[in-house]
Description:
Elements: E1 2-6, H1 14-23, E2 29-33, E3 37-43, E4 46-53, H2 58-66, H3 71-84, E5 92-100, E6 103-112, E7 118-119, H4 132-147, E8 150-152, E9 160-164, E10 169-173, E11 179-181, H5 186-191, H6 200-213, H7 218-240
Antiparallel strand pairs: 1-5, 2-3, 3-4, 4-6, 5-6, 7-9, 8-11, 9-10
Helix pairs in contact: 4-6, 6-7
Amino acid sequence: MKKVAIHPDYVSYTGFIDRLPEIFHAEGNTIYKGRNEIKVFEVNGVRINVKQYKVPIFINRIIYTFFRPTKAHRAYTFAFELLSKGFDTPHPIAYILVKKAGLIHRCYFISLQSPYPRNMYEFGEGPLTGRESVIRGLAHYAAKLHDAGIYHKDFSPGNILFQQTEDEVKFLLVDINRMQFGPVSIEKGCANFARLWGGDEMFRLLASEYAIARHADVDDCTRWVFDYRKRFWKKYTRKHGKPFEFSI
């Protein structure tokens, strides 16, 4: 059994979307493969991003079938929430829910492929010198998100894409199925930077610019940013090891 929801602007892609569960493994270009898999397909000259979510464990199959929206459904609806508030994310096209034995089995989220060429992983190494404008831009962007009541719970390097011109830096969020909407305190906002990669100089600049943007105390923000960063990476290191060398 399969449920397909398609945005009215993209009904011309119905045939392709209906076939996705059958063609996903054989077609398209894989750009990420881990717990989930992301592929890019070209359909009528348009690059389309398709994320196939891992089959949930049994208890979560029950939860997603009867009690909670699936990750694909949330990614689709949260995209419209972001866009309606003026924040960039790839335009949602559709989502697919496939059931097996009456329970959610596979889910797919389909969107336009992002044109933004860079992500925040590049700040995991190398000096900050010459790249300060991106970090200042990110701090002010995060402040705007939080002031708008938007909290990305996986605000990590690969989920923050950006493009830089001579005049500005523009940001775009992906992997948005884990979002919260509502008031974001200054402390909670500072905690949102914990998953980012980078050195102390970068985080001091982030904290300072974020505090300025939200009319908060710079010393408080700096302390919270470093404290939550240290907590996150200590926990991460115990489980996975460090992805790069930096002091915590």
